[in-house]
Structure to design on (359 residues):
């Protein structure tokens, strides 16, 4: 493949073709005016489109050269997906436009409540395979439809979700289309982490939830500062792997990887040598959620019901945008919230409600 195009994002996709691969046409016009922001009632604010100049850079990036890593029960392919200058522009654009959350939740273990404060900023968009959003991100009011009947979903389908499912905004749909084209996979969820400093982290875990199906494929795009990505086999302790994930790198995990391996982004005392912008890093993971519990799980642990944060360029940090998400509507049914902390909920710790990590 000599070239990857992204204009499938601009083409209308009818409801009866929502499950098909995106159509790839001519490249975007670099001189065209910027696209309007993506809006939806479930968003806390309009989400800016990627600049037209950046869309052109993404479209004209040279094709990646994949490299495969093979160890027992491990199937990983990684690419230098975008050149560093392009990836840096993408990082800065997404960081300034997306809503983020610093989720706090309480896990009930036996009779004891344990409060967990997520050590990074998170956000998520998408819905499981039982539903889909009509139209594309150029539509302001995309309806949530049933995948079989193509009619509005029953009102109680997502009654256990802390907020209504949110369609993937245009700035992330562009990337999803590119990753789908490169990998041959289909994704319906986009999870985003922002690591504000080297002390932000994610503990060892595996994305082996039943709602992703057996042997799920998960694609992970790194933007910004280089961070160590550690892996270890669940059974064979001698099997480990350490990768320094760099700006613009795409990591694709498939096969038995999630069933047999754990992965993490550990805390560090300083940013890796040669990286930039105060250690800030965005990680975007693309997933295919097959079952209804997937939606409730991802929104509970990556959005919840608390404050929205946005990047404040004047202060050079994430800042409080609003005290509560505008997604807290009558359709959002929250679990026993702590009235003293609007971003805290009490959750039973069971295998059926396993925490889904976002790295």
């Amino acid at each position: 493949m000599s070239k990857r195009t992204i204009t499938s994002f601009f083409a209308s996709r009818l409801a009866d073709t929502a499950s098909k691969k995106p159509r790839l046409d001519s490249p975007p016009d670099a001189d065209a005016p910027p696209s309007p922001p993506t809006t939806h009632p479930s968003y806390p604010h309009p989400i800016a489109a990627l600049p037209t100049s950046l869309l052109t850079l993404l479209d004209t990036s040279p094709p990646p050269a994949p490299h495969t890593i093979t160890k027992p029960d491990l199937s990983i392919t990684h690419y230098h997906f975008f050149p560093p200058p392009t990836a840096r522009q993408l990082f800065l654009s997404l960081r300034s436009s997306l809503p983020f959350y610093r989720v706090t939740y309480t896990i009930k273990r036996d009779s004891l409540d344990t409060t967990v404060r997520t050590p990074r900023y998170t956000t998520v968009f998408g819905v499981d395979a039982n539903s889909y959003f009509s139209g594309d991100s150029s539509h302001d009011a995309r309806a949530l439809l049933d995948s079989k009947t193509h009619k509005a979903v029953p009102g109680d389908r997502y009654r256990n979700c802390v907020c209504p499912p949110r369609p993937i905004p245009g700035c992330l749909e562009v990337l999803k289309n590119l990753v789908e084209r490169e990998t041959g996979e289909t994704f319906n969820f986009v999870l985003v982490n922002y690591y504000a400093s080297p002390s932000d982290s994610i503990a060892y875990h595996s994305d082996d939830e039943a709602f992703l199906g057996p042997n799920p494929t998960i694609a992970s795009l790194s933007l910004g500062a280089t961070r160590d990505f550690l892996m270890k086999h669940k059974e064979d302790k001698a099997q480990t792997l350490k990768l320094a994930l760099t700006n613009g790198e795409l990591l694709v995990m498939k096969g038995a990887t999630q069933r047999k391996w754990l992965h993490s982004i550990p805390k560090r005392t300083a940013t890796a040598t040669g990286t930039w912008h105060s250690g800030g890093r965005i990680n975007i993971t693309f997933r295919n959620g097959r079952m209804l519990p997937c939606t409730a799980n991802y929104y509970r642990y990556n959005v919840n019901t608390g404050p929205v944060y946005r990047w404040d360029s004047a202060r050079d940090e994430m800042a409080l945008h609003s005290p509560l998400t505008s997604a807290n509507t009558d359709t959002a049914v929250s679990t026993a919230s702590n009235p003293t902390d609007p971003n805290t909920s009490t959750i039973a710790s069971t295998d059926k409600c396993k925490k889904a990590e976002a790295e």
Q: What stands out?
A: The longest helix spans residues 84-97. The chain has one domain: 7-102+117-335. The CA atoms of residues 48 and 205 lie 32 Å apart. Confidence is low (pLDDT under 50) at residues 1-28, 325-353.
